[in-house]
Amino acid sequence: MSYTIETIAERIGARRVGDTPATIDWLLTDSRSLSFPEETLFFALTTKRNDGARYIPDLYSRGVRNFVVSKETYKKVESGELGQFSTLNFLVVSNPLKALQKLAEQHREQFQIPVIGITGSNGKTIVKEWLHQLLSPERVIVRSPRSYNSQIGVPLSVWQMNEQSELAIFEAGISEMGEMRALQNIIKPTIGILTNIGGAHQENFFSLQEKCMEKLTLFKNCDVIIYNGDDEFISNCVAKSMLSAREIAWSRKDMERPLFISKVEKKEDCTVISYRYLDMDNTFMLPFIDDASIENSLNCLAACLYLMLPAGKITERMTTLEPVAMRLEVKEGKNGCLLINDSYNSDLASLDIALDFLYRRSQSNGLKRTLILSDMLETGQNAPTLYRKVSQLASSRGIERIIGVGGEISSCAARFDMEKAFYPNTEALLHAISRGELRLENEIILIKGARQFGFDALTEELEKKVHETILEVNLGAMIANLNYYRSQLRPETKMVCMVKASAYGAGSYEIAKTLQEHHVDYLAVAVADEGSELRKTGITASIIIMNPEMTAFKTMFDYKLEPEVYSFHLLDALIKEAEKEGITNFPIHIKLDTGMHRLGFAAGDMPRLIERLKGQDAVIARSVFSHFVGSDASQFDAFTREQIDTFEVASMQLQEAFPHKILRHICNSAGIERFPGAQFDMVRLGIGLYGVSPIDNSIKNNVSTLKTTILQIREVPGEDTVGYSRKGHLTRDSRIAALPIGYADGLNRHLGNGHAYCLVNGQRAPYVGNICMDVCMIDVTDIDCKEGDTVEIFGDHLPITVLSDILETIPYEVLTSISTRVKRVYYQD
Ligand SMILES: *Cc1c(COP(=O)(O)O)cnc(C)c1O
């Protein structure tokens, strides 16, 4: 329904500034939900945490022209503080929230339809959604979106009523005394449902009673009210409140009550409920067995009976009630897991519902039943009692494995008699998963955490991403490669592992952590920032900085990052800075140029270098090294031997000048394999660690696999073209699949137009047309595949060297080009 801006101004008693004609369909309080700017009226609400006035300039630029503002806000408008506006309407009121409520109240006045108002401590949203499921086949129903039940949510819900509405269902929730009156005014329910009054928050009786009475004010002018007649506390409050409404109090004990529940029989996966209403006996089956669901269904039953839904229809629809989606979300997880995400509050009742749901889901699929549970906050019970109950509940629903997160639940670990693991916080759990220490496979997993625990990140981690490009990193394969190269070394030879450039694209932290656990002697990165990042995440191994920047000496001192030193200029600056900081014997690594002619001291610089080092005690040479130019190819073997000889002499000169041991090293991956006599004291392993043999481009144990999925498949006639600039010519009618990966992800544009292929279900699918920034197209005409199927860009089955050869480059470049927006996923067999 729409109103003119004049009508609205009049109804809320606003002073109107501006005379732009406007018709309003939408009310907005949260600028993020804007969709129809021209027909929207924005209420600039001021809350404790936020001032809606801040959003006016942004909304104005997005086309909103109608604003309800407070007098204070309007002063800011007048003073130009919020920018300059033309052609718009300001409705100035003393309190924008009150204006919003008033507008909703008057809107409500126009409708004579039944309106159900639901309040209570728990179950409001479920009762609302279930009533909708039960009653909507016959009626056009308007209801609160999600759980819009607050002082702001209720007016926005009521605003949705229109000429077509035949029944309305609204929730009302309060956080402070006195709030219900305002909500009553807006909702004006004709049917009231009180779900329950929770004692969960441990209030004393009087405040609980006060709370109950406050809630009952919602029902002031109701024709009928519905509640649990067996709850003495509620019954007493209702009696005291002297409401004039008819009552449908349901009871399992008292036959005199208007709705008598004669039998509640819990079966394995459903509950059979018999009832008597107006002298008629009937039965229905509810597909849930937890107490909260039973209570919710009885409240729904009473409302349906009152609205004269025939008993047969009630029975029919009760059996198909579904869990309310916003609470329990089922998602497909990785490794054959099924995830049940319960973002609802974490009390025992809701745990029971969720466990029941999990149990029923698990019966047909044979998955292992797992519960991931955080500390349950605000239950008002002491930890030992609470977790004993949780453990009992879990066992009764066949839970086979518990993963607890938080201090409290961890302290009660002993109470759980099943496979178990406990973590102090969500980060620790995530970490265990990403490192492969905790493996979840073929399990049905209930994820239930209190809000503070931020389980969203957990769900995200476990969820199978269908539209995602990932780089899968096999840590086990990397360790196998490490061990292979170690087996080529004398036992006393030390090793530097190169984790520069994000560990050749694989992601430096996880790789460094794994290498550290395998006791490599040094890690090496390119710049100081890469090193400090590793330190911050807990890497304690020695780290060499290959390209130390003059501006980053302080970072290096602070984080104990050992720089490579390749020139007198750098050495002098470093010594000066170290002396200023009062640092002594800071380890450095001397780089010699033996033929690469990139960086390094020349052999002839040795005497001067020795002299410079001797004249100070700020830094100390920990190692001396050089780098091969062509150790991978036999055509350069003579040159490589020259390099070794030059290094031998110059490095020896340095060593002989000092009493302490200076480690000497020159071999890279290829050098380790081809020049075993040149191991000296240490070697530097790079590409070999990541599985690519630098000698013949063969793959040892493949570490990185770049994967994506098919977004869309279409049939394209043979005479059409695919992609930008009409480059993708077809030779026949074709099936073309689009993939969510492009050159911005590191898929080189030169691979397009049939120059290369990827693998779809093991078969080669050539790239068609130009590769775009974020997407590319492939030809799958002869491949049996569907949308959502996995595609391998390179990796276990399509060696990366195939791509690097086509691109006339080296695998190093392909690996390090994969952009950071591609998520790295680690696993370890
Ligand atoms: C990158 C690098 C290495 C490792 O080389 P690979 O060919 O990957 O084994 C060794 N030493 C230095 C100085 C490097 O920069």
From TrEMBL:
SUPFAM superfamilies: Alanine racemase C-terminal domain-like (SSF50621), MurD-like peptide ligases, catalytic domain (SSF53623), MurD-like peptide ligases, peptide-binding domain (SSF53244), MurE/MurF N-terminal domain (SSF63418), PLP-binding barrel (SSF51419). GO terms for biological process: cell division; cell wall organization; D-alanine biosynthetic process; peptidoglycan biosynthetic process; regulation of cell shape. One of its GO terms (molecular function) is UDP-N-acetylmuramoyl-tripeptide-D-alanyl-D-alanine ligase activity. This is Alanine racemase. Coiled coil: none annotated. Substrate binds at R598, M773. The lineage of its organism: Bacteria, Pseudomonadati, Bacteroidota, Bacteroidia, Bacteroidales. The modification N6-(pyridoxal phosphate)lysine is found at K500. It catalyses: L-alanine = D-alanine. It holds the Pfam family Ala_racemase_N. Pathway: Amino-acid biosynthesis; D-alanine biosynthesis; D-alanine from L-alanine: step 1/1. The active site is at K500 (proton acceptor), Y724 (proton acceptor). Residues 703-827 form the Alanine racemase C-terminal domain. Catalyzes the interconversion of L-alanine and D-alanine. May also act on other amino acids. It comes from Bacteroides oleiciplenus YIT 12058. Its cofactor is pyridoxal 5'-phosphate.
